[in-house]
Amino acid sequence: MSFDKKDIDQVSINYAKSLIMDTVRNANSGHTGGPLSSLDFTYILFKEFLKFDPENPKWQNRDRFVMSVGHESALIYVMLYYIGWLKLEDLKKFRQLGSKTPGHPEKDLTPGVEATTGPLGQGVGNAVGMALAEKILSEKFGSEIINHFTYVLHGDGDIQEPVAQGSIACAGHWGLEKLIAFYDSNNAQISGKVSRSDSTDYKKMYQSHGWHVQVINGHNHDEIRNAIRIAQMEVEKPSVIIGETIMAYGTANVEGDHNTHGAPLSHEEIRLTKEKLGLDPDKLFQISDKVLDDFRASYKYAKQEVKSWNNLLDKKNTDKNFRDAWNNSINLSIPKSVDWPSYKYGDSIATRKVWGAVIEELAKKEMFLVGGSADLEPSNVTGGFASIVKDFSSKNPSGLNLAYGVREFPMGVINNGIAQHGGLFPFGATFFVFADYERPAIRLRALQGLPCISEYTHDSIYVGEDGPTHQPIEHLMSYRNIPNLLVLRPADANEAVVASKIAFEQKNRPSLVLLTRQSVPVIDRNEYAHFSNIEKGGYIISDCEKPDILIFATGSEVWVALEVKKLLLNDFNVKVVNLCCWELFEEQDLNYKKSILKCDSKTLLVSIESGTTDGWQKYTGRFGLNIGINTFGESGPGADVAEHFGITPDNIHNKILKKLDL
Q: Are 313 and 322 in contact (CB under 8 A)?
């Protein structure tokens, strides 16, 4: 095969096609057609434009590349092999247990993978978050320190997901000029041609959202190069390059066939395609050293650029203020000067108001905190934060409040992108009942171990008049079932401060902080155990010797449980356990958990929580009394709704007596 300078790129791409086909075929599983469709753009981008440190995939000022079409993972793995971060053996272990090349890209498992993708649409939002983080951090530390592009590869199915379109709207509104998207428009999906399900003019859609749009032949290398250069020169808008491409491009007989989307090519088709590409049809996983040498020819310059940047950072770090800010950003540290709010017994405060006080204090102490509400600013109590840090916009890139509008799912995936980028601690806020709008983002957030907080207010039936559409019932238990996610439901204002602090201290997992609409009494800590005990997830808030009854409660039902104990006190020994966060409690050592749960076989185990009861059997057993709500809610004043469902001290007292046949 010829290796003349003029055709080395095509030769290199042909080898990459061969590797993609062999990688998928060897696994007998995966996607072939899409990677071959997107390869030309991705190869040119990685070889000629993408800024990275060949020796450190985590270099802070690298360009970010997000493969939103996660099913095209074989493509990015081949590119990472060309870079040198993966080995040929890794391609041979594609989709195998324990390999660095899983079926869909996974952040922190594979060097060079910036985001876990696969569920379509989310990667687009992740890229928006990364570009947003770059712009904010560049404003804070200077463009000589933070100055990079964010690229995202997406496709026909990807762009059909509303979460992608909502994220695109945000990016255009914010004027994220260093975000460059490549839309691989190959007019093919699993079920056939795109025209079966979609007739949207995406060029007009992007333009309507304020993007700079180019339409090119997605297989023409010169058009690709020119489009990327033009996009890089755009200074006011995010850019999209719509590449008109062909599914399974370059194959012998199946070009344009949507059936190649999610399957290996046949052995015979691979042989014939390799012959067409000028390669040995019988050789598997073939590569030329000349291809790799040419691809890596710019590494000397790249290493010099990184060295110069490191020297500049060292110089900047001689300034204490810069050094402290940089370290706080990199480590997501809570400033030592934070004065955490505190509340007095006798007050009655909605715990959502505590969130406002906490983030306002963090903002005043210049924590690298960014986030906002999905158009529920007054209800989520994030308005004070917004007034301090101001809204982020193209005209105010130093703003840290994100006015998301009614876009819960885009808010979730964009916040994930901010966390994936690093340097900022993101939060989002809405009503708890609307958490399910962004549940897929929360799941991927937990999967990736991203430090990101959701503040969910109006956490139970005490929402009241808004009725069952706005009253979460099944939500609390369902989120406890997501691995690597903290679900914190504090009992009063002081516990809400500690719960928020716990959430901000997490480095490798996300948190939900669930807060009340209604006022709840500040618990007397002279009488009951200290609120700091929720750091262990669960604790005995009111103890006794040899309990006849052990009551578990969370959140706004803890004060109810304490009142129930008073009603039972003349006849029974009652222990009350506050299980604010099941996940933290289960992480404690066995002796601690035994001490909290200690009782005898005759003790009646009771749970009280304004939500579905299924799941409480973990602590109360088959024969316990689980008091909650297993239907949808009702519309009415919160106190009346609570009375209707029996979540009051008198009603619960009577239920316990009935359970005991008294």
A: no
- Domains in the chain (CATH in brackets) are 5-301 (3.40.50.970), 348-521 (3.40.50.970), 533-659 (3.40.50.920)
- In the structure encoding, which two tokens stand for residue 315, read together? 């110089």
pTM over 0.70: yes
Separation of alpha carbons 500 and 514, rounded Å: 10
459 within 8 A of 516, measured Cβ to Cβ: yes
What are the beta bridge partners of residue 454?
428, 512
Q: Tell me, letter by letter, the H, E, C secondary structure of 122-182.
A: HHHHHHHHHHHHHHHHHHHHCCCCCCCCEEEEEEHHHHHCHHHHHHHHHHHHHCCCCEEEE
Whether the CB-CB separation of 232 and 20 falls below 8 Å is answered with no
Rounded-to-integer distance, Cα 407 and Cα 374, Å: 6
Give the integer Cα–Cα distance in Å for 5 and 401.
50
Instruction: Name the CA dihedral angle for 318, 319, 320, 322, rounded to a multiple of 10 degrees.
Output: -110
Which residues are CB-contacts of 192 (< 8 A; sequence separation ≥ 6)? 258
Taking the C-alpha atoms of residue 488 and residue 422, their distance in angstroms, rounded to an integer, is 24
> Is the Cβ–Cβ distance between 500 and 340 less than 8 Å?
no
Tell me how long the chain is.
662
pLDDT in tens, 480-498: 999 999 999 999 999 999 9
Q: What is the pLDDT of residues 210-258, one digit of tens each?
A: 999 999 999 999 999 999 999 999 999 999 999 999 999 999 999 999 9
Closest to 599 (Cα-Cα) out of 529, 532, 658, 549: 549
Q: pLDDT at position 190, please?
A: 87
Which helix (DSSP H) or strand (DSSP E) does residue 274 occupy? helix 267-276
Neighbour order of strands in the sheet with 486-488: 369-373, 425-431, 453-457, 511-514, 486-488
Q: What is the DSSP letter of 189?
A: B
Question: What residues are annotated to the active site?
Answer: 408
Q: What is the pLDDT of residue 188?
A: 87
Name 25's bridge partners: none
From the number of C-beta atoms within 10 Å of its C-beta (0-12, 13-18, 19+), residue 339 rates as exposed
Rounded to whole angstroms, how far apart are CA atoms 81 and 85? 6
The one-letter code for the residue type at 503 is A
The one-letter amino acid at 328: N
Q: How crowded is residue 421: how many other Cβ atoms within 10 Å of its Cβ?
A: 26
Beta strands, E only, 571-629: 574-578, 604-608, 625-627
Per-residue pLDDT tens over the stretch 10-63: 999 999 999 999 999 999 999 999 999 999 999 999 999 999 999 999 999 999
pLDDT at 7: 87
Please give the average per-residue pLDDT across 606-619, as a whole number: 98
pLDDT per position as a tens digit, 393-431: 999 999 999 999 999 999 999 999 999 999 999 999 999
Q: Where are the alpha helices (DSSP H) in 455-573?
A: 475-480, 493-505, 558-568
CB of 354 closer than 8 Å to CB of 500: yes
Tens-digit pLDDT profile for residues 319-370: 999 999 999 999 999 999 999 999 999 999 999 999 999 999 999 999 999 9
Question: Residue 627 pairs with which residues in a beta bridge?
Answer: 608
Place of tokens 């406890």: 480
Locate 518 and state its tokens.
Answer: 């209604």
DSSP code per residue over 337-352: T-------BTBEEEHH
Q: Round to whole Å and give the CA distance between 69 and 117.
A: 7
CA atoms within 13 A on the CB side of 141: 29
Look up tokens 């199946």; give the residue. 254
